[in-house]
Design brief:
14% of the residues lie in helices and 14% in strands. It is built from 1 helix and 4 strands.
């Protein structure tokens, strides 16, 4: 699990290196670049409330990560 809730980061590209991650929380961050998540096929739960991710982005992620519950 990786919880980055509320961290003041602007570059989240390092997340793409965690290929075996099953849970990720980015609540209340400036996160917006969903491309870093698209290859994390082991994700089962992803928390994005309070981020800059759009509803359209969430639909794209749900297609790329069908086994992941996105909140």
């Amino acid at each position: 699990h990786l919880y980055l809730n509320g961290i003041p980061a602007s570059d989240f590209s390092f997340i793409k290196n965690f290929r075996y991650l099953t849970r990720l929380s980015l609540k209340d961050t400036s996160f917006s670049d969903i491309s870093v998540l698209e290859k994390l096929s082991n994700l089962k739960k992803l928390e994005l409330s309070g981020t800059k991710v759009t509803k359209k982005d969430i639909r794209i992620l749900k297609k790329k990560l069908p086994e992941c519950r996105i909140e």
